[in-house]
Design goal:
This protein is α/β, with parallel strands linked by helices. It folds into two domains: 96 residues, Urease, subunit C, domain 1; 314 residues, Metal-dependent hydrolases (TIM Barrel, Alpha-Beta Barrel). The chain is 33% helix and 24% strand. The chain contains 13 helices and 18 strands. The chain has an eight-stranded mixed beta sheet, covered by helices on one side. It has an eight-stranded parallel beta sheet with strand order 5-6-7-10-11-12-13-14. Strands 8-9 form a two-stranded antiparallel ribbon. β16 and β17 form a beta hairpin. α2 runs parallel beside α3. The longest helix is centred in the first third of the chain and has 17 residues.
Amino acid sequence: MRLFASHAWLADGIADDVTIEIEDGRFAGVTPNTVPGEAIRLPGVVLPGFANAHSHAFHRALRGRTHDSGGTFWTWRERMYAIAARLDPDGYLALARATYAEMALAGITAVGEFHYLHHAPSGVEYSDPNAMAEALRQAAAEAGVRLTLLDTCYLAGGLDSGGHLPLDSVQLRFSDGDVASWQARVKALRPSEGMRVGAAIHSVRAVPREFLAGVRDFATADLEAGRPLHVHLSEQPAENEACLAYYGLTPTELLATEGVLSARTTAVHATHLSVKDIALLGDSGTTACICPTTEQDLADGIGPARALRDAGSPLSLGSDQHATIDLLGEARSMEAHERLASRHRGRFTPAELMEAMTGHAGIGWPDAGRIEVGQRADLVAVRTDTPRTAGSAPDQLMLCATAADVHTVVIDGQFVVQDGRHRLGDVGALLHSAITPLWSAA
């Protein structure tokens, strides 16, 4: 297949009149300064496929449903738990398929799913202990996006100054009871062409210190080489306060002491950090996954993204609870948060924002995220003739475009979105039919 882009973002930035050849799902040729010939012409600016490094697919059911009473992250969590209690494998498949299709419409070609909705609501295993994970695998395959299943260890109900709390009734379905049982279930999951299996520590609240090394070692030794390890980190000041009170360490210090931080680790949120925390993350090469629209929606705070990058932490982006699914918007919000905190513009260059938007390596796909020969053939054509983008310079498009401006998405050499329409059809209707029954059951 031959494609032609008037403008495409290559290794050195924007190139003009680029002919792109695709064979067997990989880029076989990328040549600037050419003529279209018989190639398929792509509109606007062509960018590498985006990586959504942090997703909770079932949270998509909460959009537009949690704004009536104000509150905090903790009051929002009550409604999140209510939705979690209503999902079974069939409902999860429908919701995740529609959510992943929405991601594809936004130019996302791979997603890291932070998966802890493991068992039946009572905590009892399904006949297939990985039925919920298999629903996610099927959902991603049907939506056409690659999936990294970050299977999450979740053992405790929280943490306060007196120690770890027991699981509550909703959290029972999140837990395997102990690390050994979690490991055994995850070992039964098999990677496939479209799905990688990684691991996650839910948080220092949900995994007591004595079990952190077990998760670390399993992710390092027992999963297929190169698979990632993710962890929620310092999303809330309350987490820091509880960890300091009980362990005498910040969450970052605790993870560092237990050897969890490394170049294969991603710290999600990383919002409330000390100077020492930032240095520990940067020195270890731990990626920081920033989720700006979630921090906005939940009033969580502004994380030190620029300081983390300067310290040595690669950055990635996630839509997390899906208040919006728009990686262009996430990148723009990360820059906007820095501007508000520093009162200076241009805290991240467009190239740095693109690097964060295309952080596929952090979710186990190091052969994606660049329009280069040999890479997976993922690309996103963003229109430059809409009311939002008209008149913009091609190399600054991410600072004005939105998901609504995505025209074409190719994933592993296959057209998944054309003319702004997903191959599954009406994604809005899919979302409506998946979400409405969950609230009707309330």
